[in-house]
């Protein structure tokens, strides 16, 4: 019984948080994430952003202006300019987003990393939910 209780704790905690969120309207930390994707140029960035939106893998994609990047590639330090995409999405969609970006991105190993959103404007989170297809 003790082992079962220990194993069920994460599931029960998650359910309790979801019920609390539904009743109080409060945000559950980590429900949404921001993903970062680097692109070679603005046209590629726009094409990938549009493809992500068409697949309803995000509610919003910001395209930030080019930045200088230093990185290791095949044992050497490389330098280039890249365009950064900030993708606002549901955390549950990160795996699908990453797979999709890998399938369309011209880089051999595209950057797709994400951070969960801890807090923010509850009205923005409501808009995120309404803007995206359900899982």
From TrEMBL:
This is CUTA protein. SUPFAM superfamilies: GlnB-like. InterPro entries: Ion_tolerance_CutA, N-reg_PII-like_a/b, N-reg_PII/ATP_PRibTrfase_C. The gene is Cuta. It comes from Nothocercus julius. GO terms for molecular function: copper ion binding. Homotrimer. Belongs to the CutA family. Keywords: Signal. GO terms for biological process: response to metal ion. Residues 1-16 form the signal peptide.
């Amino acid at each position: 019984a003790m082992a079962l209780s220990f194993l069920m704790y994460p599931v029960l905690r998650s359910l309790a948080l979801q019920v609390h969120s539904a009743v109080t309207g409060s945000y559950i930390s980590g429900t949404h994430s921001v993903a970062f994707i680097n692109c070679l140029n603005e046209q590629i960035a726009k094409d990938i952003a549009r493809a992500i939106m068409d697949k309803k893998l995000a509610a919003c994609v910001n395209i930030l202006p080019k930045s200088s990047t230093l990185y290791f590639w095949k044992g050497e330090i490389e330098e280039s300019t890249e365009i950064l995409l900030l993708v606002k999405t549901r955390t549950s969609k990160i795996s699908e987003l990453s797979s999709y970006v890998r399938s369309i991105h011209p880089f051999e190993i595209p950057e797709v990393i994400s951070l969960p959103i801890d807090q923010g404007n509850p009205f923005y989170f409501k808009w995120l939910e309404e803007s995206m297809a359900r899982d």
